[in-house]
Amino acid sequence: MSGRSPNSGRRRKPTKSGVVLTHELIVDTAIRLLRLHGSEGLSARRLGLALGADASALYRYFPSVDDLRLAIADRLIDRTMGDLRVTGDWKANLRAFGLQVHAAYVADPHVAVLAASRVTGRPHETAIVERIIGVLRAAGFSDALATKLYRAMVDQMLAFAALDGAEMALPPEAREADLEKWASVYAQLPEAEYPNISAVSAQLVAIGERSAYPVALELMLDGAEVLLERSRSAGSGQSSSTPGTPQP
Fold this sequence. Notes:
The chain is mainly α. The protein folds into two domains: 1-63, Arc Repressor Mutant, subunit A (Orthogonal Bundle); 64-226, Tetracycline Repressor, domain 2 (Orthogonal Bundle). 65% of the residues lie in helices and 0% in strands. The chain contains eleven helices and no strands. The chain has helices spanning 23-37, 44-51, 65-81, 90-107, 109-115, 123-139, 143-168, 172-184, 195-199, 201-207, 213-240.
């Protein structure tokens, strides 16, 4: 965390509430505050009160509140790492990654909204980057294409995580009111004026209740597969037209 050991700056004496501060405890408490109050509720003062410590003591562990946010984002990534397994099926691997990480973010919507737009540079994020690019390179994607697909896939997942997380973080009454509009507004539109909406009104009501991310992910994976096949065909054509090149 900013190049510091997890034990650096550790407070040896308990706080006035009898708690010994650690990086892990501070991050856990910050996540709890986010769940209760949203991102606006995360401050050094409020965190200090929750820990029973002076706010200034927190800066021995995190140089700034933003540094703490990055640690929270990396903790969220860590939650998905243990369940991710690399097999010989690159599409299955990337599908599992996308769905599991998205689910972890949406399960903690306030944390997701805070973390989805950040690049932490921390160990768990680095491990995820290494794993995804490794899956793509092993599948046969060129280094340039593997890098582009990694960025596109992760940005897609994080964008939907932020979108879905923001929806989940709405007050229950606001979220219910938004969902209800698919049935009370779109399903009631006159067919003569809105023939296309009327034709699919039942489906619109159904899809309004779930994330579009799984569909978007499948579209991206199918597109990546087309790119892979195209690059293989181009490579095969290039080698066959090169004089003196042995053919398989």
